[in-house]
From TrEMBL:
Name of the featured protein: Predicted protein
Domain of life: Eukaryota
InterPro entries on file: Alkaline_phosphatase_core_sf (IPR017850), Phosphoesterase (IPR007312)
Family: Belongs to the bacterial phospholipase C family.
Keywords (A to Z) from UniProt: Hydrolase
Higher taxonomy: Eukaryota, Viridiplantae, Streptophyta, Embryophyta, Tracheophyta
GO molecular function, a single term: phosphoric ester hydrolase activity
Length: 456
């Protein structure tokens, strides 16, 4: 009968769907097994407050595949006035002081070109604006300090950031990695290891001192029997996660200057490594996190030190280093910030913004470094897991989950974020990765740059 035929057809369709799901699961399992054989240590460095175009936009001159700048980019100092001065994007960045604006309301004006008033008059995610025009950087900067428009509309020449130049040529740069939300430092740093800021859109001192309650990738690794370590030069920001203050984790924290090189040399790095730099100037040691007014050459030397320690150690062939930035720091970027992204946990930020965490922040630099990566690789938009997925800070816990075959996702955001395991394309590790002599050549350029910057 026709009823029996329909039942048989539905059964066959169901069988085909089940077979397809099984094939996908088998492929994912195979991919995890391959990755597990390649990567046993993931190292994360998160620098401070620089946009992609500001740090790497001019790298397009080295590799046209990089979505960088051409010099045709401009912002007007008064967005609504077509007669106002147009500030072009230039290549003259050096020492930056004072610090450009990067609060949530400043970022709103930078990407939408109009000041934030209140949640009713100017919703923090404007409806019916699928792509922010990125037109308000110069206008907002002039409100911070007259003449600052030229500062934020400027980027570094490749030879001014020589360590990054080397990493871009020899490993992989991601030209579509965004801050997790359009806010300042700590709300974005919280996303790096937990895929949520638990509602924070500012550096809320009271909340940070009390500690944020969310589950972190550190907890997931620990519960699954994997190791992690935090190597710090300054009291680490991961202690803003309340869970990391537990007594059981005391032995997971190491002074960077005493232990990092030694652990690299002895092959004792854990599965997940977080390196935290100096966020503030000390009496005899300058900050090296790249946050203005810190000199980026200190940051170049810091990244160089991390790379060289890893490169010279016995775990190099099973290591993946990720270098990115927490947020853009008020500096121009031409790529529209994505909207329509999933809220991690349904938490809405406090008044006056009432932010639903439904759009990302400005694009920031990101590098992937491993002997399993082909030289000169450029990573663009991810292919999944969803059609709208992007690379952002939640991609770190998402990828760590995948590499180490962990259990549940932390939030809806890391379940949505793209994973960067796709960059590990080689069947065998390279033997021609830059060694110490090449990176020492970079240091000599850095030293001349820092001397010049300090006399400006």
């Amino acid at each position: 009968s026709s009823l029996q035929i329909n039942k048989q057809a539905r059964r066959r369709a169901s069988d085909r769907e089940s077979a397809s799901v099984d094939r996908v699961r088998d492929q994912e399992k195979g991919a995890r097994e391959v990755m597990a054989g390649k990567i046993k240590t993931v190292v994360v460095v998160v620098q401070e407050n620089r946009s992609f175009d500001h740090m790497l936009g001019w790298m397009k001159s080295l590799n046209p595949d990089i979505d960088g700048v051409t010099g045709a980019e401009t912002n007007r100092v008064v967005v609504a006035d077509p007669r106002s001065k147009a500030v072009p994007f230039r290549d003259g960045s050096e020492f930056v002081d004072p610090d450009p604006g990067h609060s949530i309301q400043a970022i709103y004006e930078q990407v939408y070109g109009t000041p934030f008033v209140d949640a009713q008059a100017t919703p923090i995610t404007p409806p019916a604006v699928p792509a922010p025009p990125m037109t308000g950087f110069a206008q907002q900067a002039e409100k911070e300090k007259p003449g600052m428009a030229e500062t934020v509309m400027s980027g570094f020449r490749p030879d001014a950031v020589p360590v990054y130049r080397e990493l871009a040529l020899e490993f992989a740069v991601c030209d579509r990695w965004f801050a997790s939300n359009p806010a300042s430092t700590q709300p974005n740093r919280l996303f790096v290891h937990s895929a949520t800021s638990h509602g924070l859109v500012s550096n809320n001192t009271k909340a940070l001192v009390a500690g944020l309650p969310q589950t972190t990738i550190f907890d997931s690794l620990h519960d699954a029997g994997h190791s992690f370590g935090v190597y710090y030069q300054y009291p680490p920001s991961v202690l803003f996660y309340r869970n990391l203050r537990q007594l059981k984790y005391v032995g997971n924290f190491y002074p960077f200057d005493l232990e990092f090189r030694r652990h690299c040399r002895e092959g004792r790095l854990p599965n997940y490594v977080v390196v935290e730099q100096r966020y503030f100037d000390l009496k005899i040691l300058p900050g090296n996190d790249d946050h203005p007014s810190h000199d980026v050459c200190e940051g170049q030397r810091f990244v160089k030190e991390v790379y060289e320690a890893l490169r010279s150690g016995p775990q190099w062939e099973e290591t993946l280093l990720v270098v990115t930035y927490d947020e853009h720091g008020g500096f121009y970027d031409h790529v529209p910030t994505p909207v329509g992204v999933p809220s991690p946990d349904g938490i809405v930020s406090d008044a006056p913004f009432f932010f639903n965490f439904d759009r990302l922040g400005v694009r920031v630099p990101a590098f992937f470094v491993s002997p399993w990566i082909e030289p000169g690789t450029v990573v663009h938009r991810p292919s999944g897991p969803y059609p709208t997925s992007e690379f952002e800070h939640s991609s770190i816990p998402a990828t760590v989950k995948k590499i180490f075959n962990l259990g549940c996702f932390l939030t809806k955001r890391d379940a949505w974020a793209g994973t960067f395991d796709v960059v590990l394309t080689r069947d065998t590790p390279r033997t021609d990765c830059p060694g110490l002599s090449c990176m020492h050549a970079c240091q000599s350029v850095s030293v001349s740059h820092i001397d010049h910057a300090r006399t400006c």
